[in-house]
């Protein structure tokens, strides 16, 4: 970060410079040093972009350019005559990294390859601490440009949030969530075991089971983003417990799709058939950019009635759809083992009913109530624009794409728990490493930046968002009927 940028950030937020800020500043300043000391050659990368490479440059010998982050050492520069012809380059803060041997091992999964040949600084910062670059050596440099002021503004805000503890987890808060989850399960168990009143058995008790699934789903989301203990492997297993054991959907399957969804929200690619996996269903085309993926008589018919089927499909079959989707594709034995524990805890509940017919009725009523969760998640994106993969981090800057692809749901603070904090979907997508208990206070700062840059910060009431989704689906259905291409 440049000094100007730093000062601007400090004056805007009245904040002290911390080691974190200095580290980030060092990152950008040192990259400037690389440019100054080693006049670069221009190399054409394998992705057809212009790379300012180090090949043939004469480094100032005694220098280690970056003491803190080990970015470029003179010895390494000497041996790095040219960038491999098959290099897979990702640009971060002005430095190119060759990830060709790393893609398959990347802890964040294959989403990394969608950013090859691009300046991925914003998306990189959204998901990582700078320390993950400590042992990586760049193979060249490039000049970052901030064509879109949003990129700079949200990067500054990221630093502000980091310096002010917005990314820190409150583990007492998360413990409370687990106690709540356990209490819900226990009360549903006690109701179904000891109460014979049909009203309680078929309204309040199923509502309890719905809440158990819904809250477990939100906790899966938190932990798969490593918001809990902030130790990634441990959080992933806790997330799998919440997702697979409690919610009944494969946690790891969901995490794989969710990472892609975050990196490339509401995005498609016509060359390789890419679609944001969590913004696409075979039975709907909520945006005209999805039309080319839908053909055939049945799909055409379903799209023509999608504004009628959206709510009932979510309510009546949403839960079964996501459970089946996850285990249709899941090949990890441990996920199947965890799923059998899920059915064991469901069996313990259902066994309290005197007949299987009653048990199935109870389970089905809970499942229809759980349709609310699916609607909650889809309305955050469904009426928003779609993008093409080739444009992300090129034509459309990543932060801008996130703001354009998300809607917040306006609720009073005491309803945040019911939305799993995802009523602040803009906040979550801009800064996915931030735990949800901080979204409400972070939102003020984000709104301020949006206001300053004249960016629409879309927030709607729950019913308004549902109505707008249906309206948009109706419009798209009409467009599809006119021209399905
Ligand atoms: C040189 C480039 C990159 C390197 C060296 C790298 C490295 C890593 C490492 C070490 C982790 C694990 C972090 C931890 O344990 O705390 C990680 C996680 C992750 N990375 Fe990358 N990464 C790179 C680029 C990218 C890009 C371009 C994306 C695009 C979306 C990406 C997405 C992710 C995601 C989603 C995670 C998991 C984070 C989470 O679920 O919260 N990475 N990466």
TrEMBL record:
Entry keyword DNA repair: no
GO biological processes: lipid metabolic process
Recorded GO CC terms: membrane
Compositionally biased residues, Polar residues: 1-18
Keywords annotated in UniProt: Heme, Iron, Membrane, Metal-binding, Transmembrane, Transmembrane helix
Residue ranges of the TM segments: 172-191, 197-213, 234-254, 301-324, 336-354
Pfam assignment, any one: FA_desaturase
Limits of the Cytochrome b5 heme-binding domain: 69-135
Keyword Heme: yes
Disordered, as annotated region: 1-32
One MF annotation (Gene Ontology) recorded for this entry: metal ion binding
UniProt-recorded name of the protein: Cytochrome b5 heme-binding domain-containing protein
């Amino acid at each position: 970060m440049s000094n100007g940028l730093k000062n601007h950030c400090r004056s805007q937020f009245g904040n002290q410079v911390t080691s974190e800020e200095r580290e980030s500043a060092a990152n950008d300043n040192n990259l400037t040093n690389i440019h100054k000391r080693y006049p670069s050659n221009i190399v054409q990368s394998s992705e057809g972009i212009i790379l300012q490479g180090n090949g043939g440059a004469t480094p100032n010998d005694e220098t280690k350019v970056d003491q803190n982050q080990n970015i470029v050492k003179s010895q390494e520069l000497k041996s790095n005559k040219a960038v491999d012809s098959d290099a897979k380059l990702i640009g971060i803060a002005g430095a190119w990294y060759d990830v060709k041997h790393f893609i398959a091992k990347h802890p964040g999964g294959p989403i990394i390859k969608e950013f090859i040949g691009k300046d991925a600084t914003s998306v990189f910062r959204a998901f990582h601490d700078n320390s993950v670059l400590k042992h990586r050596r760049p193979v060249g440099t490039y000049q970052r440009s901030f064509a879109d002021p949003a990129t700079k503004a949200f990067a500054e805000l990221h630093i502000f949030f980091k310096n002010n503890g917005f990314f820190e987890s409150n583990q007492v808060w998360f413990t409370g969530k687990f106690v709540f989850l356990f209490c819900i399960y226990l009360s549903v168990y006690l109701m179904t075991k000891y109460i014979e009143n049909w009203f309680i058995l078929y309204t309040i008790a199923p509502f309890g089971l719905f809440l158990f699934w819904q809250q477990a789903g939100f906790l899966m989301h938190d932990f798969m983003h490593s918001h809990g203990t902030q130790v990634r492997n441990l959080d992933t297993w806790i997330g799998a417990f919440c997702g697979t054991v409690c919610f009944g959907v494969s946690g790891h399957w969901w995490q794989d799709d969710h990472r892609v969804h975050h990196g490339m929200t509401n995005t498609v690619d016509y060359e390789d058939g890419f679609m944001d996996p969590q913004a696409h269903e075979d039975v709907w085309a909520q945006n005209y950019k999805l039309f080319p993926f839908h053909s055939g008589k049945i799909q055409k018919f379903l799209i023509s009635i999608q504004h009628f089927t959206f709510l009932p499909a979510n309510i009546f079959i949403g839960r079964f759809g996501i459970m089946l989707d996850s285990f249709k594709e899941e090949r990890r034995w441990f996920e199947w083992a965890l799923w059998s524990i899920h059915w064991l805890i469901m069996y313990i509940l259902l066994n309290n009913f005197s007949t299987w017919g009653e048990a199935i009725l109870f389970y089905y009523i809970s499942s229809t109530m759980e349709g609310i969760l699916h609607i909650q998640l889809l309305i955050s994106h469904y009426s928003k624009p779609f993008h093409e993969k080739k444009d992300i981090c090129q034509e459309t800057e990543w932060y801008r794409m996130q703001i354009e692809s998300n809607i917040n749901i306006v609720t009073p603070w005491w309803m945040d728990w019911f939305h799993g904090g995802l009523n602040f979907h803009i906040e979550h997508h801009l800064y996915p490493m931030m735990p949800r208990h901080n979204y409400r206070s972070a939102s003020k700062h984000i709104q301020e930046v949006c206001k300053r840059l004249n960016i629409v910060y879309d927030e709607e009431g729950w019913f308004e968002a549902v109505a707008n989704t249906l309206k948009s689906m109706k419009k798209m259905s009409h467009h599809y009927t006119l021209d399905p291409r």
